[in-house]
Specification:
alpha+beta, globular, 4 strands, 2 helices, Gyrase A, domain 2
Length: 78
């Protein structure tokens, strides 16, 4: 899981793209995986950056295997 860190019971990563359009395209592609897994991250976008925070709310807001699987799937999109 390249570039992911564990902070405050969350997996966190910032993805940086060349342009705003590239960042938005990533978010759109990611949304299909996120919806299929029914595991929705906290994420923000500012220009060419997408910051993602993952934790499992149903597991007392801790990091679970579901978070790790989603992190790997998001990495595969880049």
């Amino acid at each position: 899981m390249n570039g992911w860190s564990e902070q405050n019971n969350q997996l966190q990563k910032v993805f940086t793209f060349k342009t705003f359009a590239d960042a938005m395209a990533f978010m759109v592609r990611a949304s299909y995986i996120i919806e299929k897994m029914n595991h929705h991250p906290e994420w923000t976008n500012v220009y060419n950056r997408v910051e993602i925070k993952l934790c499992t709310h149903s597991a007392s807001n801790t990091i679970t295997d579901l978070d790790r699987k989603l992190a790997l799937a998001l990495d595969a999109l880049v």
